[in-house]
Design brief:
The chain has 24 helices and 23 strands. It has 680 residues and is α+β, with helices and mostly antiparallel strands. The protein starts with a helix and ends with a helix. The mean pLDDT is 90. The structure holds 2-(butylsulfanyl)adenosine.
Length: 680
Amino acid sequence: MTKEAAEARVNELTRLLNHHNHLYYVQARTQISDYEFDMLLEELIGLEKHFPDLVKDDSPSQRVGGEITKNFRTIAHRYSMLSLSNSYSESEIVDFHNRIQKSLNEAVEYVCELKYDGVAISLRYESGKLVQALTRGDGTQGDDVTANVKTIRSIPLSLKGNFPESFEIRGEIFYPHASFEKLNIERENEGQQTFANPRNAAAGTLKLQDSAEVARRRLDCWLYYMMGENLPFATHYESLQAARSWGFKISNNMAVCSNAEEIFEYINDWKTGRYQLPFDIDGIVIKVNNFRQQQDLGFTAKSPRWAIAYKYKAEEAKTRLISVAFQVGRTGAVTPVANLEPVLLAGTTVKRASLHNADIIQQLDLYEGDTVVVEKGGEIIPKITSVILEERLPEALPVSFIENCPECGTALVRTEGESAWYCPNSSSCPPQIKGKLEHFISRKAMNIDSLGEGKIEMLYDNGLIHSIADLYDLNQTQLFGLKKAFEGEDGKVRKMSFREKTTNNILTSIEASKTVPYPRLLFALGIRFVGETVAKKLAEAFPSIDLLMMADKEALIAVDEIGDRIAESVLSFFAEPESHKLIEKLKNHGLQLEVIKSETQLSNALEGKSFVVSGVFSQFSRDEIKEIIEQHGGKNIGSISSKTSYVLAGENMGPAKLEKATKLGVPIISETEFIQMISI
Ligand code: IVH
């Protein structure tokens, strides 16, 4: 392809990708499938690789991140980032309104908006391109987090329409509930501290050094205030409507109000309405709409006189503590959970509250049967905020943290400086084993998708698997006809039994997992604090498990991003004789315990065969499939001809390819058939 042709295609792809990105992340609409989007992005990245000088700062490829920022630069704000004064009652709103009326002595209009509970950000656009993103910092200077902010899909990298040459727009970066819950589940699975609420998670994510990790975490951003010199707008409302047309994510939940009653109505609507939102708000913001009036009112030292925040009080309810249950997680961490007498709180019935750890029980000074106050604030799970001492029963005893594991009886241990208690019996404590197996088979680990939580439980309860390695000893006879009765959430008992198709699927995907590359296997082992990224770093530094097992603390902490905590966790994992036995078994079963370069030949099962790979696969990514083809002596080719041996088709294969393959009589094979070809 000539450079001119490449440039034209890069521009076209940029336009298309930006269009679909905006539709999806700002307008929540779709016109193409995820697969089609990925194909366009892949094509763009391919062209940019070939012609690096065609890469622009606002290229959609920048969204995937990759830039590492060791220290964020501190930069002075062009306009200081003030905060708002808070109010908690209607009378304070009336005072605010009266103050403004008196000062302006003319009719005034307000805009009521949601007060998003996240991290404030200031975005600078020059000639329609995002050039800088600064955090609030101390209000006069903030941190330059541009590389991380560029990965947020709802923030436009370039604008459309008739935008001012230079301006700033401010908003709030936040975690939608769905991504927050996903993040915390992942962190819990990796033995990492979970975030207390979406706001903390957003703040932590924005300051990550690795922008590729930020890209994976799916932050979002609402914009709520525009500033600049000689902006062509008379009102705040108008400026935001224009900003929406340039591509910004602007809320539809704004209301223009002309008196205090209308403001109260808005406050009341959102008092309960906020629990239906897919993100947290902690109040509403009331702003004078007219820019000239805003200017006339000016600022105090800390905040604008033309705006005020109305903060919702966290909803509280009184109830009784029935008992404290102790749950054991995959990593052996023991979490106390309070069972409560059911109570209605913010529209839902609360029966349980998280207690997090032993320190919290102590801080609350919790006694059995205590009357407690539960609060639903920004967090998703309610928490106990206090105990009503006057209502404590005279004979009540303090809630004590258990000393032995409730599942296996082993004495619990606690590392100095950590708040969690652990059951150290990682090799035979049932929830730890089941949890490890579930983590091992999960999509991001070995991706043995024919097994799930229920089936793992079934295999474990039937005594067929006790450790990860046992999965690779399973056979048809053991699995076929295996039965288990389940009690569903509705109390009904259902039966599950393995039929031939299920059995075959399970065995095929276990077999396929033997080709999962070493870094993912290392992650799948479930070593505490070794998440996906850490596993990749470790595999780069120690390209085989034998080298990793030989590494001492010094060698481990010499690796980028590996600190004391991770190093010690790796050392203690390999200090266990059980771990050595496990690795030995996995080696014997032929799993990938070292980095395999694509030139390394695993077999010649595919020798002389050429493949066109198309579509989306369930066990592997397209790149992984291509690598496997080469590892087994096959060849990847770009387009179908009569000489092509096979078209390897995943989901959503394009109709044109299908037609061509059929016309030329090229066999079309599925992922399962392909796995069978290489399972020799
Ligand atoms: S306007 C001059 N509008 O609340 C102040 N702020 O304490 C301009 N916030 O730092 C801020 N939602 O991070 C404004 N709709 C909204 C907001 C909002 C959330 C945050 C913002 C600010 C803090 C004020």
